[in-house]
Amino acid sequence: MEAKEHWFLPGFLVLAMVIAQGTTSKYLSRPQCYKKTEKATTYTCEWTKSGPMQNATYELFYKRSNSAENKKSLGKNQQSYIFVNDDKVLEKVPVDLWVVAYIGNWSCQSHSTSVRLNESVKYEAPQNMSMSRSSSNLTLSWVNKEVKNHMPEDVVLEVKFRRLEKTSGIWNTTETQVKQAMVTLENLQNQYMYQLQVRQKSKHVKCPLWSDWTPILDVPTEIQNPTEVKWTVEDFNNGTRLLKLTWGTPPYPVSVGQVKYNLSLHIWPCQLKRKNHTNITTTEFSVYVTYSAVSGYIFSFNKVGKSSQTHILVPAKHLTYPRKSWPDDKLIPRNYTPRLKNSCLEWYKLTDGETQPAKVNISKIMNGTVEETLKSIRQKMDDYVRYFYLVHKQTDGKPQTTEMRLMYKKEGAASKAPENLTVNVITNSAKLHWKPIPVQDQQGFLTHYEVCYTRSQNDGAIEIKKCHNISASKTEYLIQNLTPKSVYNIYLAGATAAGSGPNISIHIFTKLQPKSINGWMIAGIIVLIAILITICLFIIIKRHKSKIFPPIPRPMVAESNNYRVSTQDMYEIKEEVHELQLHDKSSKDPNPEEAPLLEVCEDSNEKSLGDSSTPDGVSDPLTSNFRGQVLSLETADPSQREIDCEVTMLMYRNGLVFDMKADSTEDVGTPL
Questions:
Q1: Where are the stretches annotated Disordered (predicted)?
Q2: By the 8 A CB rule, do 349 and 382 touch?
Q3: What's the pLDDT tens digit per position in 157-197?
Q4: Handedness of CA 161, 163, 167, 168 (dihedral sign)
Q5: What residues are paired with 389 via a beta bridge?
Q6: β-strand partners of 388
Q7: CB-neighbour burial class of residue 28 (10 A; exposed 0-12, middle 13-18, buried 19+)
Q8: Fewer CB in 10 Å around end: N or C, the chain?
């Protein structure tokens, strides 16, 4: 009875909560107890809470299954889990577990779960997932923290995946047993990106629990192409250069989840080790370097793999001068100081006379003096071989080259002659072309080329040899003032401080001097051309004179001084004939007073008409057909007669009769 009374009040409270807030299991789940590994000695019991149970206090109880014994508490806190130490009794028998939540004076109990604790194991989700894609396969690997706690690597694994472009699509799920922390998904499309999640469970216990799912992982495509690097160098002319490296951004399918770069550069010659710059997320990198060559490599990597390495080689600063020989009685370099940490001497043999070898010599003063160190370096050098040395130090944290030279331990004459000598022969000159002597065959610093030539005469005698020195940087030369139609022998050799080397020779034949054209002949040709041009212009102007200079039209009737005809305002004049007298020229009784006047007019008209031409289509009014018509004029004196004749002709030619006044005071009537 006491037990029943003891459970009455909590039962009533639970019933009240069920009525007020719904079913208890909705807010408080069953407890789940497990070990994280098979050999673990601590159990984890956890449950989920929601709604009004968020701020509750929880207590975990257990009792043997199918037993009437009283419940026992395993712990109490405000978290949603409780750690339980190993208990041999709990491991051997099945027990019932449940959780009670307390909120003020109220409490709520979850449903109970029956379990044998030693048979329940729940691994944690796979940690530190790494991926690798190759063709259509995706390999997953991970590291379990519980491996140190004797967690086996052979587990049951479940993977679900889908294409990234179809995030709302259905997951594809596969379950497999693995012997180690690695699994391979096959038959994936290499050009597509994917999303996946992984979980695992034990296969060594009777009631294993699935671990939690890993967070969703984005799977990019693999990097197919190496990183293309471009570099530029800015020279400050003080022994320091600024090296800038840039490269392109990878495409989207590759860069999902970010692409990083691993860069390794050898920028400080005094240290043989490269300096690594890992996890670079940008597409550019700048660093200060010396005048020495800079080497290194770069590769890009993402979640599923990395690209092939791209080698980087920035050559040393090109140098032609200064250059020196290293005699026995002089120690070089001059600026080499015995500071161990921030100074060193770099020297190496140029493989083809110009290219730096893969391995260079770095010398520091470890024991002894500077002179002893330089002496030992000189002993290692070969005669007639070109070397390059640089002195480096660090100034304010920046690498700097303080001295650099090309050098020979000992110089000799060139071992070969210039190559591919060709000659372009003209009448009295010859132009030479050749290829320079390779640096490795010069055996010293080439000071100049020597060109010599001799002429063979018809009697077999040879003139004295003439020689010219040409700059070592030139590969062509023009020999002038040669004798036309002659045979010459030309010799070419390279010279160093030790003397001239072997020469290359060639035979040439100069051409015959062409005859010059007489100056008078040239002048005559020019004059002849000028005459022909003048004649042609004359003919053209003659033929087209009328178009070039059109004729000026002449007036048909001259205008009298005493008569002005207005051409702008012409009025129609009506003729009124008051009196008309017609006389026949053949009449026997002409008026004696009018005859002289008619004769004068006729003579004058005949004379003027004889000098002038008649326009086409116009009849002369004083022709013979009209001479029978007489115009009688009363004239006072001979001078007046001339005026009257002129007026009469004008009046008659126009076919009109006007009353005109003479210059005299008397009015002269003109009857028609």
A1: 603-624
A2: yes
A3: 999 999 888 777 789 999 998 888 889 999 998 888 999 99
A4: negative
A5: 347, 405
A6: 348, 406
A7: buried
A8: N
- In this structure, what token pair is assigned to residue 510? 């100069």
Query: What is the b/e burial string over 250-259, where b = at least 16 CB atoms within 10 angstroms of the residue's CB?
Result: beebbebeeb
- 3-class secondary-structure state, position 658: coil
Average pLDDT over residues 595-614: 45
Residue 367: pLDDT band (50, 70, 90) is low
- Amino acid code (one letter) for 153: E
Angle between helices 595-611 and 638-653 (to 10 degrees): 60
Q: 173: buried, middle or exposed (CB in 10 Å: 19+, 13-18, 0-12)? A: exposed
Nearest Cα to 163, choosing from 133, 191, 142? 191
Comparing CA positions, the residue from 78, 33, 27 lying closest to residue 49 is 27
Say how far apart CA 415 and CA 585 lie, in whole Å. 135
> In the chain, what percentage of residues exceed pLDDT 70?
70
| Token pair for 588 | 């026997």
Q: Are strands 217-219 and 194-201 parallel, antiparallel or unpaired?
A: antiparallel
Residue whose token pair is 């800038």: 244
Mark 373-391 as b/e (b = at least 16 C-beta within 10 Å).
bbeebbeebeebebbbbbb
Which residue's entry shows tokens 């992984």?
A: 198
